[in-house]
Amino acid sequence: MEKIKIAIAGIGNCASSLIQGIYYYADKNPEDVIGLMHWDIGGYTPSDIEVVAAFDIDKRKVGKDVSEAIFAKPNCTTVFYDKIPKMGVKVTMGHVLDGVAQHMSKYDDDTTFVISEESENDKDEIVRVLKESGAEILLNYLPVGSEKATRFYAQCALEAGVAFINNMPVFIVSNPDWASKFEEKGIPIIGDDIKAQIGATITHRTLANLFRERGVKLDRTYQLNTGGNTDFLNMLNRDRLDSKRKSKTEAVQAVLAERLEPENIHIGPSDYVAWQKDNKLCFLRMEGKTFGDVPMNIELRLSVEDSPNSAGCVIDAVRCCKLALERGVAGQLTSISAYLMKHPPEQFTDDVARNMVEEFIAGKRER
To answer: Residue 241: its pLDDT value, please?
Structure first.
């Protein structure tokens, strides 16, 4: 089958894990595969994805072949496949805007962004690169808080006529105005804010849904997360966290029998611990009442490698997006967004969303 041609904005840890995975699964026996929700989606396997364009602003990545850039500092994710061949695709200088928090320059070379001395490319140049590369889908992997930069790349996708998968908590796909623009152009979109395969949000949602289904009243809950990658370092600037907190909180509120008051639910990144690198720790507590108003609580500690955990979901989003392109489906893809994103256009419980995705893949559901 033909390749699924993608472009990536932000060659950080998540992009590194995704690209490693594309090659890691290339020579696997389908019967022995571990770590995928779907081996085959519409005839496409992970190795049918091809990166044809990439954008970043760090001088250690700009101008390098993508195969080298994904391992350049400040990336620190687990290297589970290091035999990436030269891809013949160089990282293009992007457009900075609010893509870098000011405090990032205060940290050492292993963690900070170092903005390239190359001139920033404007919208026309980014659109030109997207068109000439033959990209069908643009993946947004910009840092949390990159509101202006995310809207910039969304507009570039619109003008280049490529689909858009928004993996970050800036509300594009779940914004009716943006969604209508993509639908009018005949372009599918998936978003917003990627979940992990087994991460803090999906675990929290599953337990919250269990409380509801078993008749337990949830009184209060928190989810505290720590990590040592540039994402957590970036989020030390609390001014960049509004959309992230809203996205993660709404993902849990959406499956509760009764929404909690703001003072009784706290979800969000909590601190940066440098030595954790790409390891993410989640500390979760849920307090409720069971039969006879008798109190109970759950405390859970979850440890995961953050970036590979999200790549397992993005690799499905890309292939579902390709099916939408082939079928001429435009606008919000509600099924895959509800299944894989924290802040989709419409929330469903995860079991319902999964069934919707299976129907979409099988062609029994339009979007």
So the answer is: 85
